[in-house]
Amino acid sequence: MSRQGIGIAGIAGRMGQMLVQEVEAAGAPLAGGIDRPGVNDVGAVALFADMAGLAEAAGVVIDFTHASTVRPHARMLAKAGTPWVLGTTGLSVEDEAELQRAAETIAIVYAPNFSPGVNLVLALAEKMAAALPAARYDAEIVEMHHRQKVDAPSGTAIGLGHAVARGRGVELREVMESGRDGHTGARKDGAIGFSAMRGGQVVGEHTLLFAAADEHIEITHRAFDRRVFAAGAVRAALWVRGRAPGLYSMMDVLGMTAGA
User: Fold this and answer.
1) 145 in active site
2) In the annotation, is 149 catalytic?
3) Does position 205 have pLDDT exceeding 70, yes or no?
4) Cα–Cα distance, 214 to 198 (Å, whole number)
5) CA distances (Å), 51 to each of 48, 84, 112, 144, 256, in order?
6) Helix, strand, coil shares of the chain as percentages rounded to 5?
7) CATH fold of the domain at 116-223
8) What is the arithmetic mean of pLDDT over 8-27?
């Protein structure tokens, strides 16, 4: 089997099947995939027992599975020397540390969102945060997703928070306020607030609000079809092959960072 093919983790799921279609639409070879135990048939596509087998067969692997798989997948892909496109959200500090270690050996594109539109919003968010003084413009991030989503705030919302924090020259963990409830006191200067809503089958809605006493500025992105994420991930997979080891973002894939 060609090591140039694209492998898909979670191939039997809704996103996995969209990825299969987008790989075919891009005219790229499909190496096969893996899925949860009990899935034994995904049509005319090779199904591997685990990530170790897929990593040995594929030229690059796209992974939108679950945060619990990040650390073992990172180790298996690094051992095989296989580039990785990771779209899983809800990562812990330990997961991110494992990701960084793997990036010393393989090229990884890790993004909270693979939509080109969202990544343009992230770039704008950083620039706006740098231009709008934190003491005057309060930053709030509101997101809504389908009722089945298990992590909150969403990875994209956290990405927006990091973009605002970078623009302000601070660390998000130092200024993040999420899930306010009860007598919280007055809003702290420089805080970045988060609100998460869940309901129905909303694919993804994110709004970044800068609120001053005399004006409000909002940027909103709405996704209507998950296919935009699948198409972006395949684009990233085609881009990352042959890259030097390192941790890349969708900004690099889109050519929006130096040296991309």
Assistant:
1) yes
2) yes
3) yes
4) 31
5) 7, 11, 21, 32, 31
6) 35, 20, 40
7) Dihydrodipicolinate Reductase; domain 2 (3.30.360)
8) 94
Distance of alpha carbon 125 from alpha carbon 35, whole angstroms: 36
Domains 6-114+226-253 and 116-223 share a fold: no
Which tokens go with 63? Answer: 């992974």
**Residue of 79, 146, 149, 162 marked active site:** 149
Sheet holding 84-86, edge to edge: 30-34, 6-9, 60-63, 84-86, 107-110, 246-248
Q: Which CATH architecture has domain 6-114+226-253?
A: 3-Layer(aba) Sandwich (3.40)
The DSSP annotation for 128-140 comes to HHHHS-TTTSEEE
Compute the residue count for the chain: 260
For the entire predicted model, the pTM comes to: 0.83
Which of 229, 213, 89 is closest to 161 using CA atoms? Answer: 89
Q: Which of 73, 145, 162, 206 is catalytic?
A: 145
Taking the C-alpha atoms of residue 133 and residue 136, their distance in angstroms, rounded to an integer, is 6
Do residues 196 and 154 make contact, with C-beta atoms less than 8 angstroms apart?
Answer: yes
Give per-residue pLDDT as tens, 130-167: 999 999 999 999 999 999 998 899 999 999 999 999 99
CA angle (161 as vertex; 156, 167 as ends), nearest 5: 125
Extents of the domains making up the chain: 6-114+226-253, 116-223
